[in-house]
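W.,

You were right to be curious about this one. When I first looked at the sequence I had no strong expectations either way, so I just let the prediction run and decided to look at it fresh. Below is the sequence, 204 residues in total, followed by the output.
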Amino acid sequence: MNEDSYHTIKSKAVAEFKDRGSKFIAIAFPIITTNDFKVKLKAIKEEHPKASHFCFAYRLGTDGIIFRYTDAGEPSGSAGKPILNQIDSFGVTNIALVVTRYFGGSLLGIPGLINAYKTSASLVLQTSHKIKMPILVNYILQFNYTKMNEVMIQIKKYNCVVLKKESTLFCEMNIGIQKSNQEICLLRFKEITGLSIEKESTKK
């Protein structure tokens, strides 16, 4: 990641690894919130009712400070952390990775488990489609409808993303401005007479 963009995966990916009878199914998928993850984890558990473990890790946000991992009943440090380490080694965020284990009857030992979860996570990340996404800063615009054309010209010029739009005689629009364009884009918006703009977080 750099200060203007981050890498994630485009869609769900699945890979499988086997060791001494145990089967490890690694499932990686993009997420935006922790609630996204909870919903998808519940679905995975319903899809694999006979699995013995559901170990996972996820990382959220472009600053990387939101993350979680769990061994889900495996020996401490043998599953969740190796999965998270693979997410980090691939340099991706806004992603969750669940490794579902079907126990095969033979104990793998801690080194064997670490290798199995690490390898499973690595395999699924190798097969996933990585994409580069711009870091967006969200703003709220308010303006008279007669200014719509001027506003849209700037939105298109600086590749802003329209997140929400309410168009009446007086318009309110939620947009995401690419971090790299933020300074010049804000300057251009402030040149539009009668338009007010503020960061979305300050509105709440």
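Here's what jumped out at me. The chain is about 30% helix and 35% strand. And, maybe more interesting for your project: The chain has two domains: 5-132, 135-203.

Coffee later to discuss?

I.
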